[in-house]
């Protein structure tokens, strides 16, 4: 497949217009670190955006940054770190999950890829999803036109919220060329409280108690004993027990005082320990990036989004029927599940379990043949499917962008 690597937005627009004139489809990629997520794309041409890179604007005082879509997330995170700022939605690095090289703790991939997949890490429970931090974007639409939506401050974002539609569209609605995001200050100190030996249901109770407290928790996860043993973080791998973790951060004295109060609040759940600095960072990077805890490169990976109150029952129910591994994030509302390869990657059992609580399941990794045969994203009800089709027709009437990436025929 011939692949174009434009260096400017104008060149990218020329590629789109040429494809339209020849009735040819395009596979839109950035670094390609998440190419294995979604259905296999059957396109005529490739449009790779890695050369469309660079920071266009950064105003630390206004907490706003604009960068070209192909800009590496690592470059953005390093620039923000110089001003003690960060992307508050904590974008994961899924490179290793799809067979690439894991980074040095700084998320991999590009800004366009992260926003296009609406990727968010453990801090989502407090800070929101990636789409909640997009202020505006520039893109090339399915008619070859230039789209400029949103602004550089929240008060300038009016009318239809196109950034939220574009975030999570996996390149099926347009070619984003520039994106403006909001940054937030980094915590001066981070503390993680660990509770040992809880089962999934009791862990959900502990995480719920912490999240309902006034201690401003920004991470809550549960690792069963088998996965805790794989961690590289001190006080986790050697626990010989399950680990329930709650994270908080802020100015030094505040973080330390709230950590002490949180340990007191959670004392009825059992013995606890604290992670500081590097150990805390290592642990939450593992939770965020998934691959360090799921070490079999041939396994099928699922991501289940459920009501936190239902998470423990679903996790226990699936593991009772399968020979898999799983852990929960987002206070029990996000379950990462690892299963041995199979004809349908366990889709029938998993979607039946999730349907009972009104959640949804996404097949994050499987062989190409499985992803072509099994719905990767949660099957839509008729109303949602109609809206999805209509949105595609509005943005990409000729269907040239990443055809079939999310749903068959779209």
Write the layout of secondary structure elements.
Blueprint: E1 2-4, H1 9-21, E2 26-29, E3 45-48, E4 55-59, E5 64-68, H2 73-82, E6 85-86, H3 111-116, H4 124-127, E7 134-140, E8 146-150, H5 162-166, E9 175-182, E10 184-185, E11 189-196, H6 200-212, E12 219-223, H7 225-228, E13 243-250, H8 252-265, E14 272-276, H9 277-289, E15 300-305, H10 308-321, E16 325-329, E17 334-339, H11 347-355, E18 360-365, H12 368-373, H13 382-395
Parallel strand pairs: 1-3, 2-3
Antiparallel strand pairs: 4-5, 5-9, 6-10, 7-8, 7-9, 11-13, 11-14, 12-13, 15-17, 15-18, 16-17
* Helix content estimate: 25-40%
Roughly what is the average pLDDT, rounded to an integer? 93
Number of strands: 18
Strand content: 15-25%
Descriptive overview:
By secondary structure, the protein is α+β, with helices and mostly antiparallel strands. The protein folds into three domains: 1-186 and 380-410, Uridine Diphospho-n-acetylenolpyruvylglucosamine Reductase, domain 3; 189-289, Alpha-Beta Plaits; 300-373, Alpha-Beta Plaits (2-Layer Sandwich). The chain has 13 helices and 18 strands. It has helices at 9-21, 73-82, 111-116, 124-127, 162-166, 200-212, 225-228, 252-265, 277-289, 308-321, 347-355, 368-373, 382-395, and strands at residues 2-4, 26-29, 45-48, 55-59, 64-68, 85-86, 134-140, 146-150, 175-182, 184-185, 189-196, 219-223, 243-250, 272-276, 300-305, 325-329, 334-339, 360-365. The strands form five sheets. The chain has a five-stranded antiparallel beta sheet. It has a four-stranded antiparallel beta sheet with strand order 12-13-11-14. It starts with a strand and ends in a 15-residue tail after the last helix.
């Amino acid at each position: 497949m011939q692949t174009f690597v434009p260096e400017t937005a104008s060149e990218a627009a020329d590629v789109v217009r040429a494809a339209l004139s020849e009735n040819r489809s395009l596979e839109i990629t950035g670094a390609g670190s998440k190419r294995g997520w979604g259905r296999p794309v059957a396109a005529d041409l490739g449009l790779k955006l890695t050369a469309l890179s660079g920071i266009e604007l950064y105003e630390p005082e206004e907490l706003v940054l604009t960068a070209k879509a192909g800009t590496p997330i690592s470059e953005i995170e390093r620039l923000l770190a110089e001003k003690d700022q960060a992307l508050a939605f904590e974008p994961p690095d899924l490179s290793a999950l799809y067979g690439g090289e894991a980074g040095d703790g700084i998320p991999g991939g590009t800004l366009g890829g992260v926003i296009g997949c609406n990727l968010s890490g453990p801090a989502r429970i407090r800070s929101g999803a990636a789409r909640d931090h997009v202020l505006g974007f520039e893109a090339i639409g399915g008619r070859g036109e230039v789209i400029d939506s949103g602004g550089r401050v929240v008060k300038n974002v009016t009318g239809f919220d196109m950034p939220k539609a574009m975030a999570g569209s996996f390149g099926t609605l347009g070619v984003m060329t520039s994106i403006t995001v909001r940054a937030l200050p980094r915590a001066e100190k981070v503390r993680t409280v660990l509770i040992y030996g809880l089962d999934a249901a009791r862990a959900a109770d502990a995480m719920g108690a912490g999240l309902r407290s006034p201690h401003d928790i920004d991470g809550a996860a549960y690792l069963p004993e088998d996965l805790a043993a794989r961690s590289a973080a001190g006080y986790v791998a050697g626990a010989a027990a399950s680990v329930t973790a709650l994270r908080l951060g802020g100015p030094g004295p505040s973080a330390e005082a709230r950590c002490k109060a949180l340990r007191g609040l959670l004392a009825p759940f059992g013995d606890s320990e604290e992670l500081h600095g590097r150990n805390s960072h290592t642990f939450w990077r593992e939770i965020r990036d998934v691959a360090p805890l799921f070490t079999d490169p041939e396994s099928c990976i699922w991501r289940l989004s459920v009501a936190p109150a239902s998470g423990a029952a679903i996790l226990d129910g699936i593991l009772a029927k399968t020979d898999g591994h799983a852990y929960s994030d987002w206070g029990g509302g996000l379950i990462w599940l690892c299963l041995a390869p199979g004809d349908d990657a366990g889709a029938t059992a998993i979607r039946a379990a999730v349907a009972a609580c009104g959640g949804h399941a996404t097949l994050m990794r499987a062989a190409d043949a499985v992803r072509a045969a099994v719905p990767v994203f949660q099957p839509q009800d008729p109303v949602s499917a109609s809206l999805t089709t209509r949105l595609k027709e509005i943005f990409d009437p000729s269907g040239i962008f990443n055809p079939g990436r999310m749903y068959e025929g779209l």
